[in-house]
Write a structure and sequence with these properties.
1 helix; mainly beta; 9 strands
Amino acid sequence: MSDMNTPPIFCLLIAATAHAAIAAPVQFSCPSSVPVSTVQVPGWTATVASELFLNSAAPISGPPEMRGDLAEFASKPGKLEWSYTYDLDRPFPNGKWLECGYGAHNEVTLARPLPEKLKSCSFTYGKGAKAGQHAIKISCI
């Protein structure tokens, strides 16, 4: 006979299965800034005064040349931090990608493929150390 303080074995199995089903978040990050190489235009002398700082980050559908911005996301506004959460639990025939934008108007972007298994990504924004810079935490499951 089972002691009342000892949970039945099936409860232990259910708890173990539920714990295994919860995936640990995967962290990604964008470089905080990108150095801008010397711009070369025939007949002109160009000077680049500083690097470009991180402005934005988001998942995209396919490589950046496809311009696959995702329109559907949940936003959570705040004064010091704000966030965007994207549902990625659907087919992406051209892959899931992370795009990071630099400069006030995302003049330069960096992109890399994301694992297909990701179901959701949250992007938490805050003010960065430099003017116009954002600190962005990216957490995906």
